Amino acid sequence: MYQLIIIDDEENICQGTAHIFPWDMVGLQVAATFTSGKQALEYVHKNHVDVILTDIRMPLMSGLEIAKEINLFNPDIKVVFMSGFSDFNYMKEALLHSVSDYLLKPIRYDELLTCFQRIKEQLDSKLCIKEAEVQPSYYQQIVTTTMNYIKENVKDATLESAAIHVNMSPSYLSRLIKEKSGVNFSTHLLNCRMKKAAKLLRGIEYKQYEIAFLVGYDNPKNFSRAFKQYYGVTPKEFRESELVNDFDLSSKGNINEA
Fold first, then answer.
1. Same domain, 58 and 82
2. Does residue 111 carry a pLDDT above 50?
3. Total structural domains in the chain?
4. Please, what's the b/e burial string for 84-95 (b: 16 or more CB within 10 A of its CB; e: otherwise)?
5. Model pTM score
Protein backbone atom coordinates (compact mmCIF):
# COMPACT_ATOMS: atom_id res chain seq x y z
CA MET A 1 0.00 0.00 0.00
CA TYR A 2 1.03 3.61 -0.51
CA GLN A 3 2.11 5.44 2.62
CA LEU A 4 0.06 8.43 3.83
CA ILE A 5 0.71 10.91 6.63
CA ILE A 6 -1.88 13.33 8.03
CA ILE A 7 -1.03 16.75 9.46
CA ASP A 8 -3.38 18.97 11.45
CA ASP A 9 -2.70 21.06 14.54
CA GLU A 10 -5.96 19.73 16.01
CA GLU A 11 -5.28 16.23 17.36
CA ASN A 12 -8.93 15.15 17.19
CA ILE A 13 -9.09 15.96 13.47
CA CYS A 14 -5.84 14.05 12.87
CA GLN A 15 -7.07 10.95 14.63
CA GLY A 16 -10.59 11.17 13.26
CA THR A 17 -9.37 11.47 9.68
CA ALA A 18 -6.93 8.61 10.22
CA HIS A 19 -9.43 6.15 11.67
CA ILE A 20 -12.87 6.96 10.28
CA PHE A 21 -12.09 6.75 6.55
CA PRO A 22 -11.28 3.28 5.09
CA TRP A 23 -7.90 4.21 3.62
CA ASP A 24 -7.06 0.65 2.63
CA MET A 25 -9.98 0.78 0.20
CA VAL A 26 -8.03 3.31 -1.89
CA GLY A 27 -4.69 1.55 -1.49
CA LEU A 28 -3.36 3.78 1.28
CA GLN A 29 -2.02 3.14 4.77
CA VAL A 30 -1.82 5.84 7.41
CA ALA A 31 1.83 5.64 8.41
CA ALA A 32 1.72 8.50 10.93
CA THR A 33 -0.20 11.58 12.09
CA PHE A 34 1.27 14.90 13.21
CA THR A 35 0.11 18.09 14.86
CA SER A 36 3.37 19.80 13.89
CA GLY A 37 4.49 20.53 10.35
CA LYS A 38 8.15 20.50 11.38
CA GLN A 39 7.87 17.06 12.93
CA ALA A 40 6.09 15.83 9.82
CA LEU A 41 8.90 17.06 7.57
CA GLU A 42 11.49 15.37 9.78
CA TYR A 43 9.54 12.14 9.36
CA VAL A 44 9.36 12.54 5.57
CA HIS A 45 13.13 13.00 5.36
CA LYS A 46 13.69 9.70 7.21
CA ASN A 47 10.83 7.54 5.94
CA HIS A 48 9.12 6.60 2.71
CA VAL A 49 5.96 8.68 2.15
CA ASP A 50 3.76 8.75 -0.94
CA VAL A 51 0.95 11.13 0.07
CA ILE A 52 0.52 13.98 2.56
CA LEU A 53 -2.89 15.22 3.69
CA THR A 54 -2.37 18.49 5.56
CA ASP A 55 -4.27 21.41 6.99
CA ILE A 56 -3.25 24.83 5.63
CA ARG A 57 -3.53 27.17 8.61
CA MET A 58 -1.25 25.88 11.36
CA PRO A 59 1.13 27.57 13.82
CA LEU A 60 4.91 27.55 13.25
CA MET A 61 4.67 25.94 9.82
CA SER A 62 1.69 26.25 7.50
CA GLY A 63 0.51 23.73 4.95
CA LEU A 64 1.78 26.02 2.20
CA GLU A 65 5.27 25.95 3.70
CA ILE A 66 5.10 22.17 3.96
CA ALA A 67 4.04 21.88 0.31
CA LYS A 68 6.90 24.16 -0.76
CA GLU A 69 9.45 22.06 1.14
CA ILE A 70 8.03 18.80 -0.21
CA ASN A 71 8.05 20.11 -3.77
CA LEU A 72 11.77 20.82 -3.42
CA PHE A 73 12.63 17.62 -1.53
CA ASN A 74 10.60 15.11 -3.53
CA PRO A 75 8.05 16.36 -6.09
CA ASP A 76 6.75 12.80 -6.52
CA ILE A 77 5.06 13.01 -3.11
CA LYS A 78 1.40 13.97 -3.52
CA VAL A 79 0.15 16.77 -1.27
CA VAL A 80 -3.54 17.37 -0.54
CA PHE A 81 -4.76 20.41 1.38
CA MET A 82 -7.71 20.47 3.73
CA SER A 83 -9.00 23.77 5.07
CA GLY A 84 -12.01 25.40 6.64
CA PHE A 85 -11.44 28.46 4.44
CA SER A 86 -12.34 28.82 0.79
CA ASP A 87 -9.62 31.34 0.01
CA PHE A 88 -8.64 32.00 -3.60
CA ASN A 89 -5.14 33.11 -2.60
CA TYR A 90 -4.55 29.81 -0.80
CA MET A 91 -5.77 27.91 -3.85
CA LYS A 92 -3.47 29.95 -6.09
CA GLU A 93 -0.49 29.24 -3.82
CA ALA A 94 -1.41 25.58 -3.77
CA LEU A 95 -1.24 25.41 -7.56
CA LEU A 96 2.21 27.00 -7.51
CA HIS A 97 3.49 24.20 -5.31
CA SER A 98 1.88 21.42 -7.35
CA VAL A 99 -0.68 20.50 -4.68
CA SER A 100 -2.89 17.67 -5.93
CA ASP A 101 -6.20 18.79 -4.41
CA TYR A 102 -7.87 21.26 -2.05
CA LEU A 103 -10.61 19.90 0.22
CA LEU A 104 -12.89 22.10 2.28
CA LYS A 105 -13.76 21.17 5.87
CA PRO A 106 -15.95 19.54 6.91
CA ILE A 107 -14.80 17.07 4.26
CA ARG A 108 -17.54 14.96 2.76
CA TYR A 109 -16.94 11.22 2.46
CA ASP A 110 -17.58 11.14 -1.29
CA GLU A 111 -15.15 14.02 -1.88
CA LEU A 112 -12.43 12.28 0.09
CA LEU A 113 -13.06 9.02 -1.75
CA THR A 114 -12.99 10.65 -5.19
CA CYS A 115 -9.85 12.62 -4.37
CA PHE A 116 -7.81 9.67 -3.17
CA GLN A 117 -9.05 7.28 -5.83
CA ARG A 118 -7.67 9.74 -8.36
CA ILE A 119 -4.38 10.07 -6.46
CA LYS A 120 -3.98 6.28 -6.31
CA GLU A 121 -4.50 6.11 -10.08
CA GLN A 122 -1.79 8.75 -10.53
CA LEU A 123 0.61 6.87 -8.25
CA ASP A 124 -0.11 3.58 -10.00
CA SER A 125 0.49 5.19 -13.38
CA LYS A 126 3.80 6.72 -12.29
CA LEU A 127 4.89 3.40 -10.80
CA CYS A 128 4.18 1.58 -14.06
CA ILE A 129 6.21 4.15 -16.00
CA LYS A 130 9.12 3.82 -13.57
CA GLU A 131 9.03 0.04 -13.81
CA ALA A 132 9.16 0.21 -17.59
CA GLU A 133 12.09 2.63 -17.57
CA VAL A 134 14.26 1.00 -14.92
CA GLN A 135 16.67 -1.76 -15.91
CA PRO A 136 15.94 -5.21 -14.44
CA SER A 137 19.39 -5.19 -12.81
CA TYR A 138 18.26 -2.28 -10.64
CA TYR A 139 15.46 -4.34 -9.10
CA GLN A 140 17.78 -7.27 -8.59
CA GLN A 141 20.16 -4.96 -6.74
CA ILE A 142 17.29 -3.83 -4.51
CA VAL A 143 16.56 -7.45 -3.62
CA THR A 144 20.26 -8.17 -3.00
CA THR A 145 20.53 -5.09 -0.77
CA THR A 146 17.45 -6.25 1.14
CA MET A 147 18.90 -9.73 1.63
CA ASN A 148 22.14 -8.24 2.97
CA TYR A 149 20.13 -6.02 5.30
CA ILE A 150 18.30 -9.06 6.69
CA LYS A 151 21.58 -10.90 7.30
CA GLU A 152 23.13 -7.91 9.06
CA ASN A 153 20.01 -7.18 11.14
CA VAL A 154 18.63 -10.67 11.62
CA LYS A 155 17.46 -9.95 15.18
CA ASP A 156 15.37 -6.84 14.46
CA ALA A 157 14.72 -6.88 10.71
CA THR A 158 11.13 -6.36 9.57
CA LEU A 159 9.56 -5.75 6.18
CA GLU A 160 8.91 -2.15 7.23
CA SER A 161 12.50 -1.48 8.33
CA ALA A 162 13.89 -3.13 5.18
CA ALA A 163 11.56 -1.02 3.02
CA ILE A 164 12.87 2.15 4.67
CA HIS A 165 16.43 0.94 4.08
CA VAL A 166 15.87 0.67 0.31
CA ASN A 167 13.43 3.61 0.13
CA MET A 168 10.39 1.65 -1.04
CA SER A 169 6.93 1.03 0.32
CA PRO A 170 6.64 -2.27 2.25
CA SER A 171 3.96 -3.63 -0.07
CA TYR A 172 6.00 -2.90 -3.21
CA LEU A 173 9.21 -4.35 -1.73
CA SER A 174 7.33 -7.49 -0.68
CA ARG A 175 5.99 -7.95 -4.20
CA LEU A 176 9.42 -7.31 -5.73
CA ILE A 177 11.16 -9.88 -3.50
CA LYS A 178 8.54 -12.51 -4.30
CA GLU A 179 8.80 -11.78 -8.01
CA LYS A 180 12.61 -11.85 -8.18
CA SER A 181 13.38 -14.65 -5.73
CA GLY A 182 10.31 -16.85 -5.77
CA VAL A 183 9.74 -16.66 -2.01
CA ASN A 184 8.42 -13.96 0.28
CA PHE A 185 10.22 -11.69 2.75
CA SER A 186 9.23 -13.68 5.83
CA THR A 187 10.73 -16.85 4.34
CA HIS A 188 14.03 -15.09 3.65
CA LEU A 189 14.04 -13.75 7.21
CA LEU A 190 13.30 -17.20 8.62
CA ASN A 191 16.12 -18.73 6.54
CA CYS A 192 18.62 -16.22 7.90
CA ARG A 193 17.45 -16.64 11.48
CA MET A 194 17.58 -20.43 11.41
CA LYS A 195 20.99 -20.57 9.73
CA LYS A 196 22.46 -18.14 12.23
CA ALA A 197 20.86 -20.08 15.09
CA ALA A 198 22.37 -23.34 13.83
CA LYS A 199 25.78 -21.70 13.56
CA LEU A 200 25.57 -20.39 17.13
CA LEU A 201 24.36 -23.74 18.44
CA ARG A 202 27.52 -25.37 17.10
CA GLY A 203 29.50 -23.32 19.60
CA ILE A 204 29.35 -23.11 23.38
CA GLU A 205 29.45 -19.32 23.82
CA TYR A 206 25.70 -18.84 24.21
CA LYS A 207 22.89 -20.58 26.02
CA GLN A 208 19.84 -21.61 24.04
CA TYR A 209 17.63 -18.78 25.32
CA GLU A 210 20.40 -16.28 24.46
CA ILE A 211 20.57 -17.62 20.91
CA ALA A 212 16.80 -17.31 20.64
CA PHE A 213 17.07 -13.63 21.55
CA LEU A 214 20.00 -13.04 19.17
CA VAL A 215 17.99 -14.30 16.20
CA GLY A 216 14.84 -12.34 16.98
CA TYR A 217 12.77 -14.52 19.32
CA ASP A 218 11.75 -13.04 22.67
CA ASN A 219 10.18 -16.36 23.71
CA PRO A 220 12.59 -19.36 23.72
CA LYS A 221 9.64 -21.75 23.31
CA ASN A 222 8.65 -20.07 20.05
CA PHE A 223 12.28 -20.30 18.89
CA SER A 224 12.48 -24.00 19.75
CA ARG A 225 9.22 -24.67 17.93
CA ALA A 226 10.35 -22.77 14.82
CA PHE A 227 13.77 -24.45 14.84
CA LYS A 228 12.27 -27.94 15.02
CA GLN A 229 9.81 -27.16 12.25
CA TYR A 230 12.67 -25.89 10.09
CA TYR A 231 15.35 -28.55 10.80
CA GLY A 232 13.35 -31.47 12.16
CA VAL A 233 15.11 -31.49 15.55
CA THR A 234 14.95 -29.21 18.58
CA PRO A 235 17.83 -26.83 19.34
CA LYS A 236 18.75 -29.06 22.33
CA GLU A 237 18.79 -32.18 20.17
CA PHE A 238 20.82 -30.40 17.52
CA ARG A 239 23.41 -29.19 20.02
CA GLU A 240 23.71 -32.54 21.84
CA SER A 241 23.81 -34.70 18.75
CA GLU A 242 27.04 -36.54 18.11
CA LEU A 243 26.47 -35.70 14.47
CA VAL A 244 26.20 -31.95 15.04
CA ASN A 245 29.42 -31.20 13.15
CA ASP A 246 28.19 -33.21 10.18
CA PHE A 247 24.61 -31.95 10.27
CA ASP A 248 23.67 -31.07 6.72
CA LEU A 249 22.14 -27.62 7.07
CA SER A 250 21.77 -27.23 3.34
CA SER A 251 19.38 -30.17 3.17
CA LYS A 252 16.95 -28.69 5.69
CA GLY A 253 14.60 -25.87 4.86
CA ASN A 254 16.89 -24.74 2.08
CA ILE A 255 15.42 -22.07 -0.15
CA ASN A 256 17.51 -20.34 -2.75
CA GLU A 257 17.90 -16.68 -1.93
CA ALA A 258 18.32 -13.87 -4.42
1. yes
2. yes
3. 2
4. eeeeeebeebbe
5. 0.51
